Automatic annotation (TrEMBL):
TM helices/strands, residue ranges: none
Species name: Danionella cerebrum
Role according to the record: Catalyzes the oxidation of D-2-hydroxyglutarate (D-2-HG) to alpha-ketoglutarate. Also catalyzes the oxidation of other D-2-hydroxyacids, such as D-malate (D-MAL) and D-lactate (D-LAC). Exhibits high activities towards D-2-HG and D-MAL but a very weak activity towards D-LAC.
This protein's name: D-2-hydroxyglutarate dehydrogenase, mitochondrial
Entry GO MF terms: (R)-2-hydroxyglutarate dehydrogenase activity; FAD binding; metal ion binding
Gene Ontology CC terms, in alphabetical order: mitochondrion
Localization per record: Mitochondrion
EC number: 1.1.99.39
Entry keyword set: FAD, Flavoprotein, Metal-binding, Mitochondrion, Oxidoreductase, Transit peptide, Zinc
InterPro entries registered for this protein in UniProt: FAD-bd_oxidored_4_C (IPR004113), FAD-bd_PCMH (IPR016166), FAD-bd_PCMH-like_sf (IPR036318), FAD-bd_PCMH_sub1 (IPR016167), FAD-bd_PCMH_sub2 (IPR016169), FAD-linked_Oxase-like_C (IPR016164), FAD-oxidored/transferase_4 (IPR051264), Oxid_FAD_bind_N (IPR006094)
């Protein structure tokens, strides 16, 4: 029951990704890293307010105005060549990444500056025109696409780096900068972004902040609520809120930027971001390990935190069902002994010899205690789980935060609860921050299966005082389930804030807040 490990120091290329071996369909360092970088009244068991009706995911259209010829003329004069009305060009912006939400917008606006965004929103607010802010459109809860005919406001052309301070590591950029391009920009200057996501090639920093995206580096560098130092935001009436600070410490009044982090574009449109970026680590090691039980996996995590300490940068897991999907649909072979659970562990530091010594001692410890049954030095096996799932049929995705010891209990309970109604029930995620990605597949969209999943999954999560959305947001799909994670008084205050900042409710309507709170 010893561990087999070929410890490898991973070269830090400018992309941070190694290529898949061209000669073998195995889980190379790149692949593993890329895999890791979804009615009637029901009883709410959370104790967080009274029972709340579970409402259909399809809301009714609010009484917003329709776009007129005069509106189009205004937008074309403001954005010459960047006011898109061709249905073929708009189609991809009307459909979410999972292809489960389809909007009917007839106009796509592509501003380049904060001033243009301000003029757009000032006009839309005056005319009572609903607006759907959109970044890279990589969200999984329907928050980035229109529900009806909302005007799509794309930040894709707002893609300039404004400043970078190579002493403090503070980057200031426009909201439409693609995460991967920011990563390249920083790596050339010996820094990295504090977050890393599987969608980094498409997602934008403004959308990341708007959804408070987590990702693979949260264990090491914390959430965006800590690394984002400042924001520039355009409010619904066109006012520009300049909170674009570049200070680590500023204790003068309310920290207003926090209102917009995770608000999913419902309170204002983020146009620029200041973010604290860490130095690029000089030493990076990765290990892919197998465990015989989830309890052993948790004990390995405890041992890992104690022995690796400051150099531990990621600790991810996936179950055997995920591995089978990778093997079946992506033709990737398991590089280690078949195991019920797998761990992807990364260390990042400044001294290769020091880091490798600590990692070897950790591996010796888990080998001696038989916590780990096999392993190899690889990193690329978690983000591609999402890709494999798309080949397995229609996928119901849930992004849950739970006490770490309860993470896999939900997967097992869901399998028992659904029985043969589901094709596959799999779990993977971030052990370091208690984030489970629960995915349930079926041959096609199945209303009966969905009725068996929801609200059971939310009731289960609430029972253990978890969150129904750890990092994906609420969007369209989860808006009416917010009470499973938030007390009624908290939700009511959210509604008051929305009414204060966006009294007409034009910003990303039908998202985040429950239907009975939208104005």
């Amino acid at each position: 029951m010893g561990i087999f490990l070929r410890l490898t120091r991973i070269p830090l290329s400018s992309s941070g990704i190694l290529s898949q071996c061209p000669h073998h369909n195995t889980l190379s360092p790149a692949v593993i890293r890329h895999i890791l970088a979804g009615a009637p009244t029901r009883k709410n068991h959370s104790g967080r307010g009274p029972d709340h009706p579970v409402i259909s995911a399809a809301p009714l259209r609010k009484p917003f105005s329709k776009v007129t010829k005069e509106d189009l003329s205004f937008f074309r004069n403001l954005l010459p060549g960047r006011t898109i009305t061709d249905p073929d060009l708009i189609r991809s912006s009307n459909i979410d990444w999972l292809r489960t939400v389809h909007g009917n917008s007839e106009i796509l606006l592509r501003p380049k500056t904060t001033e243009e965004v301000s003029e757009i929103l000032r006009h839309c607010n005056k005319r009572n025109l609903a607006v759907c802010p959109q970044g890279g459109n990589t969200g999984l809860v329907g928050g980035s696409v229109p529900v009806f005919d909302e005007i799509i406001l794309s930040t894709s052309l707002m893609n300039q780096v404004i400043t970078f301070d190579n002493i403090s590591g503070i980057l200031t950029c426009q909201a439409g900068c693609v995460l991967e391009k920011l990563s390249h920009f920083l790596e050339e200057r010996d820094f990295i972004m504090p977050l890393d996501l599987g969608a980094k090639g498409s997602c934008q920093i403004g959308g990341n902040v708007s959804t408070n995206a987590g990702g693979l580096r949260l264990l090491r560098y914390g959430s965006l609520r800590g690394t984002v130092l400042g924001l520039e935001v355009v409010l619904a009436d066109g006012r520009v809120l300049n909170c674009l600070a570049t200070l680590r410490k500023d204790n003068t009044g309310y920290d207003l930027k926090q209102l917009f982090i995770g608000a999913e574009g419902t309170l204002g449109v983020i146009t620029a971001v200041s973010i604290l970026c860490p130095h690029k680590p000089k030493s990076l090691n990765v290990a892919f390990l197998g465990c015989s039980s989830f309890q052993h996996l948790l004990e390995t995590f405890q041992c890992c935190r104690g022995m690796l300490g400051e150099i531990l940068s990621a600790f991810e897991f996936l179950d055997a069902s995920c591995m089978k999907l990778l093997e079946k649909h992506l033709k990737l072979s398991n590089p280690i002994t078949e195991s019920p659970f797998y761990i992807v562990l990364e260390t990042a530091g400044s001294n290769a010899a020091h880091d490798e010594e600590k990692l070897h001692k950790f591996l010796e410890a888990v080998m001696t205690s038989s916590l780990v049954i096999d392993g190899t030095a690889l990193w690329s096996l978690r983000e591609r789980v999402t890709e494999a799932l798309t080949h397995d049929g229609y996928t119901y995705k849930y992004d849950i935060s739970l006490p770490v010891e309860k993470i896999y209990d939900l997967v097992q309970d869901m399998r028992r609860h659904l029985g043969d109604k589901a094709k596959n029930v799999v779990g993977y995620g971030h052990v370091g921050d208690g984030n489970l990605h629960l995915n349930i597949t079926s041959p096609s969209k199945d209303p009966r299966l969905l009725a068996a999943i929801e609200p059971y999954v939310y009731e289960w999560t609430s029972q253990w005082k978890g969150s129904i959305s750890a990092e994906h947001g609420l969007g369209l799909k989860k808006r009416n389930y917010i009470h499973y994670s938030k007390h009624s008084e908290v939700v009511a205050l959210m509604g008051n804030i929305k009414a204060l900042l966006d009294p007409k409710g034009i910003l990303n309507p039908y998202k985040t807040l429950p239907d009975n709170m939208h104005r």
